[in-house]
Amino acid sequence: MAHPELRGVVALDGPSGTGKSTVARRLASRYGAAYLDTGAMYRAVTLAVLRAGVVLSDAEAVARGARSAELTMGTDPEHPCVLLAGEYVDDEIRGAAVTEAVSAVSAIPQVRRALVAEQVRLIEAAMSEPGGIVVEGRDIGTVVAPDAGLKVYLTASSQVRAQRRSAQDTAAGRESDVDDTRADVQRRDKLDSGRQTSPLRMAEDAVELDSTGLDVAGVLEHLHKLVESRGLLVYAERTAR
Q: Which residues are in the Cytidylate kinase domain (predicted)?
């Protein structure tokens, strides 16, 4: 039976807590596509820097630590993974220490240049195979994949985003308080939007999708219609990626 497969790049941008990771993974799975969480890449190099004991105010040292990190990203949406020097760090990069430091690390221009280059390489590798790729982050449509066939900017109210983030943390066994999480969400919004290099902003040709009143299924339905309308689907016998 023929299944819809993605041809091209879908770029999902937006602030923390909008549900990017969940819908990006499910969208990629639906279309037999690869999946890339660029935020996890910044979190991973932040963890590498913290483990090395680098002072975060020393931009050059942070950049060296980030560039030397042995980072491996799994792009299978069914089993995404992040490895540092061969060690799975998917849980650790979501901890409080990394969450507090990641915006500062990701704001350093040398760090962003190094990771954007790697993100572009991963996208090109995925595009060399059937299925395309769904990429999520904060500068995908503006910097990483400006020629993406579909760019979507996900938004939601800060309260809803805090509730989602808090629920995710609790489900993962991490202590969480909605008020504290909301303060952190707003702090990261300010840092990510105000950084000099690749600030968080919506691409001029992106479609804004407010997920405040939508569940995951509702967001996916909107995304499916957008993907179809852009002519990014072909129907083929699906093969294992």
A: 10-228
Amino acid at 1: M
CATH number, domain with residue 140? 3.40.50.300
Residue 218 among known ligand-binding residues? no
pLDDT one-digit tens code per residue, 41-100: 999 999 999 999 999 999 999 999 999 999 999 999 999 999 999 999 999 999 989 999
Q: Residue 239: its pLDDT value, please?
A: 57
16 is in an annotated binding site: yes
Q: Is 20 annotated as a binding residue?
A: yes
Say what the alpha-carbon torsion angle 22, 27, 28, 32 is, to the nearest 10 degrees: 140
pLDDT at 66: 94
Domain count, the chain: 1
Give the structural domain span for 177: 2-237
